[in-house]
Amino acid sequence: MKKIYIINLFLILFSLSTNNIFGLDISITHSTFQYKNTKYIELYIQVIGNTVKYREENDLKQAKVDFTVLIKQGDKIVNFDKFTLTGPKSKNIKDFIGIRRFKVKKGEYILDITAKDVYDENNIFKYNNSFSVDLNENDICISDIQLLAKIKKSNESNNPFVKNGYYLEPVLFHYLPKDIDTLGLYLELYNLNKTKNEKYVVLTVNKGFKNDGFNTQIIKQKIDIENKTIYPVLTKMSIKGLQSGNYHLKVDLFSDKNQLLASKYTNFQRSNPVENAKSNYASTGFKNSFANKMPEDSIYYSLKAMVPLMESSNSVSINNIISSKNTKAARYFLWRYWYEKNNIDPAGAYSEYMKYAKAVDKKFRSQLGYGFETDRGYIYLKYGMPSEIITRESEPTAPPYEIWFYDRIEQDDQRRVKFIFYIPSLAHNDFVLLHSNCRGEKKNPTWFYELYSKRNDSNVRNVKQSQIESFYEELKNSFDNNAVRLWEELK
Predict the structure, then answer these.
(1) Can you list the domains of the chain with their CATH numbers?
(2) Which of 258, 285, 357, 474 is the most exposed place for a label (fewest CB within 10 A)?
(3) How many helices (H) and strands (E) does the chain have?
(4) In the prediction, which pLDDT does 23 show?
């Protein structure tokens, strides 16, 4: 079965304090464009205001974050930049944004970013992801799709967020909360004058990420275009009625003879917890559904197995239903969820998923609960089977640990994603998540210090950054304590 993937971003965003040593969280998105013979990547950065430390002066707060950006091909650095992003002076905590542009050529790249809180040297954010540049100055092609949270006219000439007379603010984490009811997008079409045929663009929004098995067309928009060397497309679409879930946005460029000339796609997530009380199926299909005939204990087992699929708005609902023991509400929630995923055969979709969930339960079950309630089981259901798993059970100064590597995570095209789990107490055999470079999951820049705590007498919060970095280098070159070396080698 193709898994359904939902990232629970905002559990992290709202739980972190400004003094949290592991708190720095940053939205990194990027798009590739070209102008004449020059190709470039636009890097959009948004620092989450409540995850940094502030200096106060005259009752005004201000934060600063240092960035090191490396663009690599293999081990070769082809472009780089170091800069400081400074937040606004304000009485209140605010997010702050920045943009950088880098020249690139056609090819495959790795984007490696390290960010450090200027006022808390231990507050570090790391980002590593791959991207490709497939634009060709001689062919009809499409730039990447830039998702926009805000579009407004502007005549500012020195604002890097202004293009073609409009201020364009990118979407945070490709995540659209309920207060955003219009999705904007910007893209560029290239070399349309290579042929004289009239052309048009079709924008479609499908429910579910690409290839996850639940694609259903939700929104369609057609735009007629002109034959120019560079043709910018700036448009909006209403998502006010778009329900919570994952969505796949595709842009297709056609000739007037309906020949497909080029395509591009991106993914986004929507949180819209307002229920549609007037939906027709609410009063028809539920009565005779599979959920209405299931034993009560199977209902609650199924709901617990579905928690990894939930986004933040639905995770609260499902947990409340489980704890309240309202069986009628539980049955309805279960049926409605799978009906929305597959209104032709909701029972079949549910059954396929539960076969997978039961296998995960069996594989990871511990003394603390079902297998899908453990950290490893949760990640397995949420992101699927890892490309590689490395297990170490008998290093002299570390508890047992596992490193999971994903070559690619489908929902937002993350590449080279890693998780490390360990057993903090040998009293029970339950691995917990220690650190990950996956967006939206736990980030712990000093994970290695905790893993090898038997080698250290000092609390990590009282150790200088230079000591931590020195210890990291020591572990990286060690063949007795392998975690850091293995982590670095998984690329």
Answers:
(1) 1-137 (2.60.40.10), 148-272 (2.60.40.2550), 280-369 (no CATH), 386-489 (no CATH)
(2) 258
(3) 9, 24
(4) 65
